[in-house]
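Researcher: I'm preparing a figure for a lab meeting and need a structural model of a single chain. I don't have an experimental structure, so a prediction will have to do for now. The sequence is pasted below. Please return the structure as tokens so I can convert it later.
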Amino acid sequence: MNSRGYGYDILIFMELKKISTALKSNLIRLSIFQRIAIGNALVIIIGAVAGTLITRYLAIQTTDWELILLFAFVGTLFSIGINFLIISAALRPLRDLGRLAKRLTKPSNGSLVSPMEGMENADPYTARMASTLHSLVVHLEERNQELRALSDRAITAQEAERKAIAQSLHDDTGQALTMLAIQLDRIDERIPEEQKALKKQVAEARMLTTNALTELRRILSGLRPSILDDLGLVPAIRWYARTYLEAARVHVIFKAPNTPFDLPPSVATTLFRISQEAMNNIVRHAQASTATIVLQLNSQQVQLRVEDNGCGFDQERVSQDAVHANQLGLVGVRERAQLLGGKVTIESVPGKGSHLLAVIPLDNAGGNHGG
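Model: Understood. Here is the structure written out token by token.
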């Protein structure tokens, strides 16, 4: 008898489980609006029936209105609590959707999660929203990777072109101007002293040639300074700071390790371009009297810090104006660092100077631009 009763209980439990699974499957197909509407309807019906029966019973059994009001108050609180639980359960897909959006924004392992991961009770609308959101993020990530690849190729081509142009100008135009200056000196030596007008014209031509050589050297240093390839990053930054900052009467404080920097060419070029852009901005906009440049290196990363005591700027306004004016120097600086897995942070307050920090990891600096 006991075994038959135990088996009967198991059958009942299995039937109840099937009914529960079927109800859950049907509920999942309902939208959030339908879930809330059904839940509220059940609360109203149950509350109305139960409240009526309890009130009728109390009215027959007792005339204590305080007790009746107490039961009414408890019933109201009970209805509100049940309604809260129903609404919370109905809105759970929205919370799951929010958590999915957060995981898509910050993937833990670098790969995007499945659109239905964590969506245990999704209704048709939130399921479609999750799938659409996931597709958009995947699409954006693919486009970002394509843009990074194009940017890497563009920067690589730009550096190679700069190097080729600088080499050509140095070997051809520079030597031609140098020979012209030498020839003008020889012509000047052969002109008699009494022909002052002719000697004056030769002197003016020689001055024009000297100015052209000076301007050519300035252009070459901006395109691709040979000191960067010949002596390395530290001498190149020190030379550029003395050439441009000190020429603009900005006192330079430069700190770097005494040991030579053995950096990949891509890292050295990137850090030089970042420091170049920072120093150019100091000369053009900062109105600073002192600039500090610090290079630090360890086994994991290299850091470049550039500070000034100038007028500072409003970062949000300057970023918007730069985009509208197509002046993307700081944007290019960030892009160069990101291509090597690094990061550039800029802090500035109007009237309190500016601070730029570039951090480039050495184990991830596999880019080839600037080599």
